[in-house]
């Protein structure tokens, strides 16, 4: 017996077979199917472009909401308080 075989740990149910490579499925993602069923676009490539455009618009909207409100604050002395009416 060689030293290589003595140092290897073999677990129960484990075989010496090599694991197969990952094979991607041909199934389309659900969002692509949804866009195609809506009839917005006719093929999968354009549906991907629609999703990318949606993500870009969402990022722009979020950035606008986060940074759009930042501005100069007015001088508190300029605030005019109106008298209360009874």
Biggest β-sheet strands, sense, barrel: none
Gross morphology is: elongated
What's the total helix number?
3
Question: Secondary-structure element order, as H and E?
Answer: HHH
| Count of β-strands | 0
**Radius of gyration, taken over Cα atoms and rounded to an integer in Å:** 31 Å
Cα distance spanning the termini:
104 Å
Tell me what portion of residues adopts beta-strand conformation: under 5%
Average pLDDT rating: 80
Verbal overview:
With 86 residues, the protein is an all-alpha fold. It starts with a helix and ends in a 19-residue tail after the last helix. 44% of the residues lie in helices and 0% in strands. The chain is elongated and about 90 Å long. The mean pLDDT is 80. It contains three helices and no strands. The chain has a domain at 26-66.
């Amino acid at each position: 017996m060689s030293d290589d075989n003595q140092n290897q740990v073999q677990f129960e149910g484990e075989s010496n077979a090599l694991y197969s490579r990952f094979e991607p499925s041909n199934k389309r993602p659900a969002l692509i199917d949804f866009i195609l069923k809506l009839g917005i676009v006719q093929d999968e490539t354009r549906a991907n472009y629609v999703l990318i455009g949606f993500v870009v618009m969402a990022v722009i909207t979020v950035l606008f909401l986060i940074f759009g409100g930042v501005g100069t604050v007015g001088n508190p002395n300029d605030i005019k308080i109106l008298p209360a009416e009874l």
